[in-house]
């Protein structure tokens, strides 16, 4: 059933207080709930009270201590409806029975490695008890948990522990009380054999907060980075937004079976263990960075999500877009701002742009959904974060802060919509943002065309912009967007020309001299076409457009290759230096793809080689910046730019360029490896991470030469590595080339790490995303490996999801890749619909390929939708993919 934003109705009943009592057992769990129900219209007319409930057995139901008679309620597969409840505040008591040990969906209450845990967002609470499972029902909760003391010595829930004690038969109980009102999706419970790393944080107001990170005993040593990250996040939020923690206790629990990354339950965050546990030996720089970002993210939700929450699930980006933006800023401040920005923009382009151009394209605030779980998307999260970033670009740092302050002042304790955030930003700064809200309602990536001209007589420079938003499913015609364009103008020496004023629609706009960034002006595009004219420009400038990627759009400008080489060498905006290199690389790849199709010999433009060379040898540049600048755009990014996506030609051209660069710059790459080794103990900081990234990027280039000398070098790197970053990257470099070395070393690595769950996940993905020919057979074999488990989402994402990342193997001409994915989706759907639906997304863009691939992929989608008993999750993705 499809649900629409326009159909939102206020609830007829509010819940003010919820007391839960869990009796956890080995074959069943009993849940008693006692709810104070307040009719919105106290004393008015009676409305039915509809409670959600799935996969749970109703034991009893009472109103004001009286058993409700059978004729006074209705029970179906998904609801419990009370026909005419009292019209004044009453107490509702419901008992249910559930079977967490059989719950493979990992939603609601389930078991992971012998421990109980919960995941309630978005709609998992209804798998625990009958409830109005919607975020605008906010209540204060208590939670009593009763369980066997030896099996479940630790019993956790939200808020403060107010009582605990022993019971008969080796059982014990605890009572938790959460003083803050919350929607049920923030409820959490954990029970099991866990130990904690303890620390404290003193808030700026002097409150001492106990911090605890819970894991099985053997993993405690791997939690120090997570604790460091948590403390850094708490401090950052105080310094940056004036936001302090609001309870005396903050818990984080790591579990190995988790559908997503992590969950911000009030004072009891539950994490996928891959985003908590790290040691230098078992985790790499990427893992350390993700942990920092996600620990920050979930912590920041305490204000942006929990204190101010969403009115309904269509508003998801209100909390997720904002919180992603906050975690991005946090990571920037903890490391390198430019590098973080480049990584985030690349990710957006690689994932969100293609989502936005496909059958699942939806606005940051979707208009409808069948299954909310399908809308935890890169559009809601990442494009949503870009929308928040645009407010900051438009208002400046101080203006943005004023908007945030007003947002909390107005809405603390409320469940609100995206308009409320917009209004706070607007009102705090007294600005007119005209059509900015269309960022929430229009899907599709806008394309902005820019043409420039210089008039030497009048010393004026004109930039003409036109914008177009492509049609998307259900939205054939689009309005113009409000697009902030941060521009700089470079003179022939490469310096920024100060911009003091410009004409827009014949109106002179002066830039306040106080603004520190007079070298960058932020233009406001609001129409389909418009022109900006800059005066007193002494020579024809080179424009640096969309500095720091000021809007999530595609840009098509009339700049020449020479202009881009100039920007690459000179732009004061480091993001745009990287961008200029990427534009050149994309153009180069597309022209080589044309040559490849025409069977012309491939020749690499020497300007490109020398561009890469000068980056590689420029000791003034940040090393991580260099490694990002010398990396080629991804296959999926390039395929997106083709009329008919052709994975084979993209692969051929990418491989050709890599190898050619390795041949021509072998000396430089070797020097890079040599100069960036270190014998010091692993340290996760920007300097060391940058050094390792650059070294290992060079190593991957060298490996493409596939000669004996390089083989020896990389083997040596592998064997001498003292941390997972160096070891794994050497392994990746070796595993590019098929052969005995590859097999031996993969085996060696497995033997070494078979008891480390998180390393095994890496080992699986390393093999699944490989481009070596015919890899589908290896991946199928790995399904039967003892290291694999179809019920563990991380393993599925590594092996099956990872496979889809190899465009040559996933899109194999014979359809073997599609067939494999089709089979896996159906198997997974029976166990865990959310995981299955993430995997089926890989088939959604079938129309981008040639006819024979289209037919093969379509056949799999058809097979999937016509399967009996398919979940709504998979049905939504597969049917929308076929319909578009
Ligand atoms: N709110 C979580 C976050 O921090 C994501 C939870 C998503 N869960 C789900 N079952 N869809 O991003
Ligand atoms: Zn989040």
What does this entry look like structurally?
Its cofactor is Zn(2+). It comes from Zostera marina. It catalyses: Release of an N-terminal amino acid, preferentially alanine, from a wide range of peptides, amides and arylamides. The protein is of the alpha+beta class and 884 residues long. Helices cover 40% and strands 21% of the residues. The strands form 8 sheets. It has an 8-stranded mixed β-sheet, with no helix packed on it. A 6-stranded mixed β-sheet has the order 29-28-31-26-25-33, with no helix packed on it. A 5-stranded mixed β-sheet has the order 17-18-19-21-20, with helices on one face. Helix 2 packs across helix 3, helix 4 (337-356) crosses helix 9 (574-597) and helix 24 runs parallel beside helix 26. The longest helix is centred in the middle third of the chain and has 34 residues, at 378-411. The model has no long low-confidence stretch (mean pLDDT 97). The structure holds arginine and zinc ion (ZN). Zinc ion (ZN) is lined by residues 297, 301, 320, 323.
Number of strand elements: 33
Biggest sheet character: 8 strands, mixed
How many H/I helices? Answer: 26
Backbone structural class: alpha+beta
Overall mean pLDDT stands at: 97
- Contiguous low-pLDDT stretches (5 residues minimum) are none
EC number: 3.4.11.14
Organism: Zostera marina
Domain Peptidase M1 alanyl aminopeptidase C-terminal: 561-883
Cofactor: Zn(2+)
